[in-house]
């Protein structure tokens, strides 16, 4: 079935896909159960991904990246997510939530100081948007930024922040005036070792267990004015661009989860015998496999359509991005669920990959905008296009 993944790819992109697949099947798949039990993503796998240019993603070469187009980048994320969403996140963040704002709004000095080392895999970064009372409603965030001459003072709390405890810097979204809503939101690059920053890990998660997630407390953190990204009040546009690329990243991860789950379920159905024959020959199992294939293939096509829109223009088209994110996340959940069902009791054991895929799939329906938020965006755009 793997040849179907070549859809829309040119020869160079297909060569890259094959290289990534070989890396995943040779180095990741045999170890993924073990290192998930140990609770840490091996450094050597990250280093290999860096050496292959996967972490550099769509960031231009002049800023330390690999200069991929979005179609190739999403394909790389998909291939890695077939077995490991944590590693897929590592290669996805620099081009999406973490790097997109700097790439499009950063000064040359900011790009070389902050973006280059992240794109090269020399530093890690985080994007701090979500707050205890501001998740899907990001425009109501309450982290406050007060201007004082040549610097700003930030105070507030963020939560569910990826890389919060391990980052070198974080892109923090704060408001200059809570009464102004989205018009007051401004973005700042805040260095992790700044006085007044405390982070606390969030543990015992359903999914993303080997990826760092944490709370961030900002208590009078002084940020130089040169670390402001864009103009005052321009943070909402930066936030939308960052989250938009994040949604494309999550959509690609979701396709990978679905594809990996489908492959595992098919392999097991061919091996497992019941009622005197392969369960793959039972019509009820065949119907499940067929539905899983439909969900996976349509999700892949939507993600690639959305990626093409990003290649056509910076920021892509939120209609196609939200369509891809919504459908791919649903597909990942459906296919992972059915993969566990086909495996029966064995599907509930962490001896097999499908148990973890099921847990990881749920996260894709929540992060970077829930399914319900994607529905609202799609419906709004449909109204505009009518």
Report the biggest beta sheet as strand number plus sense, adding barrel if it closes. 4 strands, mixed
User: Mind telling me which CATH architecture of the largest domain this is?
Assistant: Up-down Bundle
Main sheet: strand order = 1-4-5-8
Give the terminus-to-terminus CA distance: 38 Å
Number of domains: 3
Supply the number of helical segments. Answer: 12
Give the CATH topology of the largest domain.
Butyryl-CoA Dehydrogenase, subunit A, domain 3
Uncertain regions: pLDDT < 50 for 5+ in a row?
A: none
What class do helices, strands and sheet pairing give?
alpha+beta
Level of helix content? 40-55%
The 3D shape can be described as globular
What do we call the CATH homologous superfamily of the largest domain? Butyryl-CoA Dehydrogenase, subunit A, domain 3
Beta-sheet strand percentage?
15-25%
Determine the mean pLDDT. 95
The CATH class of the largest domain is: Mainly Alpha
Q: Element order, helices and strands?
A: HHHHHHHEEEEEEEEHEEHHHH
